[in-house]
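Board notes (copied after class):
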Amino acid sequence: MDASNPEPIRAQIFARVVLALGLIVLGFWTLYEFLPALVWAGVLAVAFWPYYLRVRRNWPLARHELLLPALFTLAIALVFVLPVVLTGIQAGREARTVIAWIDTVRRDGLPVPDFVAHLPFLAEQARQWWQYHLSDPEGAAELLTRMSTPEYVMAGRQVGIAILHRLVIFGFCLLTLFFLFKDGDVFAEQLRRASARAFGPGGERIGRQTIASIHGTVNGLVLVGLAEGLLLYAFYLGTGVPRPTLLGVATALGAMIPFGAPVIFLIAAALVLAQGSMVGAIVIVVAGTVITFVADHFIRPILIGSATRLPFIWVLFGILGGVTTWGLLGLFIGPAIMSALILLWREWTETA
């Protein structure tokens, strides 16, 4: 080949680029259904990798190289599975009570509780609706029959199929997470070399910033959510909320999602109000509002913003936009994407 003639070389480069892009597109198309599992595994691996390294340095069974990744993966699986299992067991225990209560309402109706008459707004309209639809046995039976129509049954089946699909994705996520723990050092070195070849020194800076943002988001969402659930659980116990443990776990999980905690503590307040305790309901609403306000406007911005070096407004947009676009996965990759974009913007504008 004549080195003085650049045309064959250009043709080869063009062919390689086209081949690489084609293979990348085919790879994404092949793995499309498993991309959520792969991304979740990557997020979990980044979040728990420092703890894994700390344990591995003091791991006495160095010869059993598969045991530690397996134990770490199992521990992470239990962190996510145990709350769901406990909630399912509690729901199963309550199923008989709920079925018996439905039969009683269908047969005898449900009397108007005392708190309806003390509602600050629309008390008379609420009383009339309750008497017609719940106090009257025929109205209660009609309402319950309407809720058991094929549309609601089909919706329940779709929810079950969606849960089964997510369980499968979670299984593949754990499998991928195991191999990431096992070969994490090799994979990290490959990513470092690839970013250096593709983007130069700036590639590693973007990667480190993305990793730091994931760590900060995990601390800001998960740890703060658990703290919110624990604090409100104490108020649930003090005000006599039925099933306080179940609602406490639900509050902790809901607090990890933007505007999720208010939904749970408002349900708890409604249950206390249904028992006739107006003061208890007010206490829960006030305490929940104060706790979530402080957590969302002070603690989380500090934890996430300090790690991602993002102003609070971009942290908020990253979380909300990520959830809107990517679902729950967007809670973590949304701030990471915004952090990388802001870093690129700063380097672009600050470099002369």
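Comment from the instructor: The chain has 14 helices and no strands. The two ends are 43 Å apart (CA to CA).
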